[in-house]
Design brief:
This protein is an alpha/beta fold. It has a single domain, classed as Glutaredoxin. A five-stranded mixed sheet has the order 3-2-1-6-7.
């Protein structure tokens, strides 16, 4: 009986509460980056000082507005269950048609439990920003705040033909 209760707690309870598995979550993101468009994946957390430093009008909100053909996906990770909406709304983020706001189902920030790979790639720092096109990673910024002119150049480069 205890084993049945444990199976229910670990497997069925998340399904009943509408939570997705980490694998299903990654598949959703993999589907988003698979298309021919340029997609920017941005890993962040509301508690992260470097992430908050990017949340200026000329930061993410300006980049998203200037690039309507680029899909930008914010993935809230290592979030300890903290609601990201207030931080995003204060930065003018949330209503843009080319912005997707996702929260990873694993909230842990503890090193032994947290997400440390995503789509088969290492994920070791926040914020981290990855640029995809055609399902292929074109460039990854894995340590710290993004410089938006540099990100713009990488997005422009990702739009260009790439034969190798």
């Amino acid at each position: 009986m205890k084993r049945l209760a444990l199976i229910f707690a670990l497997v069925l309870a998340p399904l009943l509460h509408g939570q997705v598995s980490a694998g299903d979550f990654e598949k959703e993101v993999a589907d988003l980056v698979a298309g021919p468009q340029v997609t920017v994946i941005h890993f962040w957390a509301p508690w992260c000082p470097n992430c908050r430093a990017e949340m200026t009008p000329e930061g993410w909100a300006g980049f998203i507005q200037a690039n309507p053909s680029v899909t930008v996906v914010f993935i809230n990770i290592w979030h300890r269950g903290e609601d990201p909406k207030p931080r995003l709304q204060s930065a003018g983020l949330g209503g843009q048609p080319n912005l997707r706001l996702l929260t990873h189902p694993n909230p842990s920030r503890a090193a032994a439990e947290r997400v440390n790979t995503f789509l088969g790639l290492p994920l070791t720092w926040l914020p981290s920003t990855w640029v995809y096109r055609d399902g292929k990673l074109r460039v990854a910024f894995n340590y710290g705040e993004i410089r938006f002119p540099v990100l713009q150049q990488m997005v422009d480069d990702a739009r260009a033909p790439w034969s190798h």
